[in-house]
Amino acid sequence: MDKLLLSKGLFWTSLVLLLIGGGLLLWDGSSEPMTNTSKQSTARASAGPIPAKADVPSPEHIKPIPQTLESKTVLLQNGDSLSRTLNRLGVSNRQIAQLLQVDESSVLSNLQPGQKLTTDILVPSNDLKNLTLSVSRERAHVFKQVDSGYRYKEQLTPIETVLAYKEVTIQNSLFVDGATAGISDKLLLKITGIFRWDIDFALDIRQGDRFALLYEERFIDGEKIGTGHIIAAQFINNGRVFEALRYQLEQQTDYFTRDGLSLRKAFIRSPVDFTRVSSQFNPHRLHPIFKTSRPHQGVDYAAATGTPVQSSGDGSVAFVGEMKGYGNTVIIDHGAGYTTLYAHLNGFADHVIAGRQVAQGETIAYVGQTGWATGPHLHYEFRINGTHQNPETVDIPYDSPMSKSELMAFLPYAQTLMERLKRSRSQDMAKYLVRLSRKN
């Protein structure tokens, strides 16, 4: 019995000591249960000391995220729009709207394939600082960020212009031999435009014809970017010598002979560009359909259906419509007794109606095969006071001449240009002889 009591006492004593030593007491000696506050206090105490306030960085000591200015250039393609292109580069719609608020933003509304769009953007904030639209090698539109949005500036790259000389003898054609000499099609077209009043380039060009020209070559940073104006030119066609000197009058810039006569005349020789003559002016021609001798009172220019037909001079439309064997026809009254007729047309330009004024070189109709025509061509007649004239040989009146004061200023300039052209020819010939001697 005593042993049993002793064993029970030891059991209870050991249990109490175990609970105290293990920290499993469920109360802290007070009669109140633990609240949430006391639990939080206990948790803070067990978490260790709280750092002092001075250890937390203040806003002014927080380092900003570094920004990098990145430039990107996009070559615009068909269908590209400003907003889609800029969105693709990371520019926000908000900044695009700011760009479009600039008065000159209309220059961004007509993007063309081949133009370049360059952006300077801060990364990673995607803040657009500069936008440049390069429309050509020498011209760009620049939008620079300012406090109030963006500011516009047109940027022009300095261009160096030098005079160059070329001389060509035609053995094949104007364009083939010109290209062989290193002359661009653009420059060759300018030559035909300058001499179009005196030379019919569809009919008159002969093997052995020659032309020489002084023209502008344009450079940016030493790289050739193209050609400019033809300053002086000479064309020898079938023994006839034609000269053209570029000169600026008070109201316009044009080409003149060394004597001050304008190359621009009241009529151009050919109303269709670069075709062949299929039938010339002939008072006794055998008609291809009726097989009888009938006068052919004009010139026929063979050309593809739809080729533009130009008015050979300023005037008003006297007739437009269908005319018996002529088919679709336009007649232009140029005043002072001059009229021209254009026949066998496929159709008329929309603005060509009776009484309407037209300008020299303006498209009035299109080549066709209407009326009595065996193939697509333009039939062209030239009349003075109702009498038919040969369009290829008729004397064409000059356009308005220079005034006396303008002529006095022009003549010394013309002499200088002609001397320069002659000197360039001599230098070119000397270079040719040097090359020839080296080959031999």
Automatic annotation (TrEMBL):
Its EC number is 3.4.24.-. GO terms for cellular component: cell envelope. Residues 33-44 have a biased composition (Polar residues). It is found in: Cell envelope. GO terms for molecular function: metal ion binding; metalloendopeptidase activity. One of its GO terms (biological process) is proteolysis. It comes from the Bacteria. SUPFAM superfamilies: Duplicated hybrid motif. PROSITE patterns: LYSM. Residues 72-119 form the LysM domain. Keywords: Hydrolase, Metal-binding, Metalloprotease, Protease, Zinc. Residues 33-60 are annotated as: Disordered. Its cofactor is Zn(2+). This is Murein DD-endopeptidase MepM. It comes from Marinomonas gallaica. The lineage of its organism: Bacteria, Pseudomonadati, Pseudomonadota, Gammaproteobacteria, Oceanospirillales.
